[in-house]
TrEMBL record:
It catalyses: N,N-dimethylethanolamine phosphate + S-adenosyl-L-methionine = phosphocholine + S-adenosyl-L-homocysteine + H(+); phosphoethanolamine + S-adenosyl-L-methionine = N-methylethanolamine phosphate + S-adenosyl-L-homocysteine + H(+); N-methylethanolamine phosphate + S-adenosyl-L-methionine = N,N-dimethylethanolamine phosphate + S-adenosyl-L-homocysteine + H(+). PANTHER family: PHOSPHOETHANOLAMINE METHYLTRANSFERASE, PHOSPHOETHANOLAMINE METHYLTRANSFERASE ISOFORM X1. This is phosphoethanolamine N-methyltransferase. It comes from Rotaria magnacalcarata. Pathway: Lipid metabolism; Phospholipid metabolism; phosphatidylcholine biosynthesis. InterPro entries: Methyltransf_25, SAM-dependent_MTases_sf.
């Protein structure tokens, strides 16, 4: 019997589709209806049509999905979109209730322990430049930390699009806001939500991986 996986922040389906290819029975949701629609298209193109996609806020995951999953995941720095400890704890409790006894939770976030919280206009490269259909695409991030506590930051992703024939340049800007939560606090919140054996794993993924289990009893 294949294990069941619930992805509570699936985005465009990166983890959900990959896990489905490996034989897991995947249920996936995201707060963004547009992302979920894109995930459905990506799954269809890759012949992974058994994934159950839906729109859901991770803070209401148990009410939406129910329980008894083997594994619940939230990857790619999704948790820090929640801007308070209370909201993160609420999401973690929902993930906990979605698990069967003995089930596992897996979370990945950016390694905020290593980030310099040095104010505003922090520029970070994002991937490599690529050329596609006669256009060059370059991306970069700009972070603006709140200067009172340096715990939250406004995030802007600039996508620069250059037409290599006419040299016209168009810049797109996408905005978000994050909570730069550290490892110790996330581990403590996972424990407060009920998880045991909570640890951080490094070198297994491009981001730190946090795992915990729901007790058997």
């Amino acid at each position: 019997q294949h294990q069941t996986v619930l992805d509570v922040s699936c985005g465009i389906g990166t983890q959900a589709i990959g896990l489905s290819k490996y034989g897991y029975r995947v249920t996936a949701s995201d707060l963004s209806a547009n992302e979920v629609e894109r995930a459905k298209q990506e799954a269809q193109q890759r012949e992974q049509t058994n994934i159950l996609f839906s729109v859901c806020d991770m803070r209401t995951a148990f009410g939406h999905h129910g329980g008894n999953f083997d594994i619940v995941i939230s990857c790619d720095n999704s948790i820090p979109h929640l801007l308070t400890d209370d909201d993160i704890l609420s999401a973690l409790q929902q993930m906990y209730f979605c698990l069967k006894p003995g089930g596992g939770c897996l979370i990945t976030i950016r390694d905020y322990d290593q980030e310099q919280r040095c104010g505003k206009n922090i520029v970070k490269p994002y991937g490599k430049a690529k050329i596609e259909n006669g256009k060059r695409y370059v991306a970069l991030q700009v972070w603006d930390f709140d200067e009172q506590h340096f715990q939250h930051y406004d995030f802007t992703l600039y996508m620069i699009e250059e037409d290599l024939n006419c040299k016209e340049v168009v810049t797109h800007a996408m905005h978000s806001r994050y909570y730069a939560i550290g490892s110790e606090k996330l581990i403590r919140l996972m424990q407060n939500a009920g998880f045991e054996n909570v640890i951080r794993l490094d070198e297994s993924f491009y981001q730190p991986v946090f795992i915990g289990t729901r007790p058997l009893t």
